[in-house]
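FIELD: query
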Amino acid sequence: MTTTDGAPSALAPAPLVPLHRLRFEEPGPPRTVEQPDGSVAWLVSRYTDVRQVLSDERFGRARLYDPDAPAVAGVPEIVNDPDLMFNQDGPEHLRLRRTLRRAFTPRSVARWQPWIAAIVEQLLEGLAVRHRPADLVQEFTLPLPVAVISRLMGLDEQARDRMRHWSEHAFSDGSLADGQVTAALEEFSAFGAGLLAERRRTPGDDLISGLVRAAAEEDGIPESQLVSLVCGLVVGGHDSTMTMLGNSLLYLLGERPETWERLGADEDAAGAAVDRLVHLVPLGDDRGTARHASADAEVGGVTIPAGAVVIADCGMANRDPAVFTRRPFDDLFAPLEAPTLAFGAGAHYCLGAWLARTELRIALHRLAARYPGLRLAEDPDRVDWRTGSTSRSPRSLAVTW
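FIELD: result
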């Protein structure tokens, strides 16, 4: 909104900036902060402190969803489904995690690399015949992770077509009507339940069939948790990778074109750049990941009381000058000084981290090798943003070569 003389109105929302330009405060000792709903939480921001909170079993997720706990979100969304694996703690969480853990090991992902590379090459071939400027989101950053997770899970074409619809509602930012979101999530849950039933009848060698077999060995996992796990895999398995790839390309093509030649010439260098980009460019504007303190705990010399909500700010922690250089974007190919917290830490460390890194490395390396003259065909400051509850990325990226 603007005033009649063209000056910004006091009511106009601040324009969204590319995520690599977000500014973070200097991390410090744990302190209390007021949340948007007026409640008080403890903010933890130093690297060592955040890593402790994410790894300490006294800081869990499940209690955030107790009946008497404050609402975590004002709109329905999959991230705050109490049955989601990420929102389980202790034995319940480990039991669910064991059903998938072997599927995402580095050894397993290494076996997938040839067909992931084949998907990338197929998309690059398709890009070559598109009119220029072409939309890199529609032609590359979206279809790549959709194709990868679809192959892993044995999803048919119809499910692929519905995937973006489900993701937009599963990660709703509040712009969609609650009834519309609820209806989409109910449809999505029915799809997940049907997929599990189908794999029980006719198992194969896909990820869901493996999940069904592992769940039977675990015995007693509630069906609602398995359905949430399947739905989380469907949307989480492509949304995060699409977001990371789109935001990385916006930065590389818009502000770091001098790195493009090296990305295309050296796949190992591309892997190092992926590690740093994932570390530095957050998925969205979220302050951090919430935890509930089940007991008094000392963090960074401060006692956080039992019952407190704790916000672990991974973005601030990943820029902690006590651990990382103060100019972290200077050398995109330099190894990280310490493990990134972009994928979390501890028991809830992202199972798909190795797969995401692999997809991003192959995608950036082969895109740069095939299109050494690739460049943005629009002003990077005029990006149309796709926003969600946990992520933000370009809705389109016009490029030419």
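FIELD: remark
The first strand starts at residue 31 and ends at 34.
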